[in-house]
Amino acid sequence: MRDSVNSYFIAIDGGGTSCRFALQSPSGVTYARRGGANVSSAPQAAIAVLNEGLIELSTLAGLEAARLGEIPIYAGLAGVVDDAVSQFVADQLPSRHVLVEDDRPSAVVGALGDRPGCLLGIGTGSFLARQTQDEMRLIGGYGSILGDESSGCWLGKELLRRALHVLDGILPTSDLVESCLSEFQHDVVQIMNFSFRAKPVDYGGYAPRVVQAARAGDTVGQELMVAGADYICSGLTALGHQPGEIVCPVGGVAEHYVDYLPAEIAATVTEGQGVALDGALELSRRFARQVGQETA
C-alpha cells in the first residue's frame, strides 16, 4: 500500500502524564489523546496505552485498523533510554515501519523547527539541547534521582533539603523556608516520611512557591533560582552555545529562569514555534520520506 508510505504518517508524543497522537493524511491531520505512558517504569501499561491510542486515531480518521500496518510511525516517548527499549516498543506497535526515540528530539524540533539554537526543556524534569544544521546535541534528562537539575522537582527537593539544614542549625532560614516547615510542623520525621513516598510531581509542586518567593526578594528563593540558572549556563557552555544564538524555554519552569540568566543570553530568548507534537509530526514526516525512498 504505497500511498500510505507516501501520504500517511503517524506521530506520537508520549509523556508520563499524557500521550498525544496525530495522523497526517491527504485530507489533513487527525488527533487523539490518551493517558500517560513510561516505557521503562511501566512497559506493558505503556504499550497498551500506545496501541489503544493508535486504534482510536485510525477510527477517528476513518481508516481500518489493518491499514496501520503500512503507515510509518514516529514515537517520541518518555522512558526510552537505549536501543533495546526502542526496539521493544517498535516490536509491539502495529506498523512495519516504526521509529522510536526518547521524547527530547520532538520537543527540540517542535520549538526550533529547522532553526539553529538551544532549548531549555525545564518542567517537572529537565534537559538542554542545541541544534545546528549538522546535528542535535542533548544533555541532561537523567531523571529525578541523579539529574533533572533546575527542574521543578529539583527546586522542590532543594527547598526541603534547605529546610532540613535549617532545622539542624546549619543554614539560616527565610520566609520561604518557614512556610515550608510550617506544613510539616517543623518535624524532621514528617519531612522524611514525605520524601519516602513523594514522586517528582510532588516535589515539583513546591516550584511555584520558590519562583514567587524569589520574585518577592526571599533570599533562599533567590539562591535556588540562581543555582538553577548557573546549571543552565554551564549546560549551554557545554553544548557550544554561540553569542546571539536563540534560546527557547519550554516547560512550566524554564521561562522563570530568564531573569536570572546573563543579559547576553536573556536577550536571545525566543518563544518556540510549536509544541512537542508538532516536532514529532515533522520527525514522522522525515521518517516517512525515508521509508518511501527505501521501499521505492
Automatic annotation (TrEMBL):
SUPFAM superfamilies tied to this protein: Actin-like ATPase domain
Locate the ATPase BadF/BadG/BcrA/BcrD type domain: which residues?
12-258
> Which InterPro entries does the entry mention?
ATPase_BadF, ATPase_NBD, Euk-type_GlcNAc_Kinase
* One Pfam family recorded for the sequence: BcrAD_BadFG
Q: Which Gene3D superfamilies match?
A: 3.30.420.40
Q: What is this protein called?
A: ATPase
State the species of origin.
Parasedimentitalea huanghaiensis
